[in-house]
Amino acid sequence: LKMQFPRIKVLMFGMPEDEEEFISAIRSGAIGYLLKEASLEEIIEGVRSLARNEAVIPRSLSLALVEYAAGIRTYPLRTEHGFAGLTQRERQLLPLLGRGFTNKEIAEKLGISEQTVKNHVHSILSKLNVKSRGAITLQPASPPSFGALVSPPPSVLELVSKAPHGDS
């Protein structure tokens, strides 16, 4: 919806109290997220809040959003095809994209044509629901300095390698 109607304000309601589902909804363009326990009054107030250009976020999930925005935590990229539905070849390209290799460099490294690389890159961007290859990084930004209490978030590569792989 957000891609076709960029000015639309999306309020998700009847949603589970699940951090990954919540972050996935935010990534997809939702600016409101109400749990399934929300009353009719809360839904109405949520719509009014969106009309005032205010985000609607459950308190119980607000820390997840702050940690995600700060780069302290990451969440797997999820789509209707499981973990982004990346093929084995696309998973091979992902670390090279994340390190900033050009299509030509990737083609040379993998022994495939530059056009094939372009096709794979287009497919990866679509499956990961990102607009540019610059959004794919393997070295996440360093989290704020909290000493030894916080470990850096896993990279996209780590998330892909731990995800269940389909037959594609």
Description:
The chain has helices at residues 19-27, 40-51, 59-69, 88-98, 103-110, 114-128, 156-162, and strands at residues 10-15, 30-35. The protein is mainly α. It has a two-stranded parallel sheet. The longest helix has 15 residues, at 114-128. It contains seven helices and two strands; from the N terminus they run E-H-E-H-H-H-H-H-H. Residues 79-83 and 138-168 have low confidence and may be disordered.
Strand content: 5-15%
Count of discrete alpha- or pi-helical segments spanning 4 or more residues: 7
Distance between the termini: 27 Å
Radius of gyration, taken over Cα atoms and rounded to an integer in Å: 18 Å
Total beta strand runs: 2
Shape: elongated
Mean pLDDT over all positions: 75
Largest sheet: 2 strands, parallel
Sequence of secondary-structure elements? EHEHHHHHH
Topology overview:
Layout: E1 10-15, H1 19-27, E2 30-35, H2 40-51, H3 59-69, H4 88-98, H5 103-110, H6 114-128, H7 156-162
Helix pairs in contact: 4-6, 4-7, 5-6
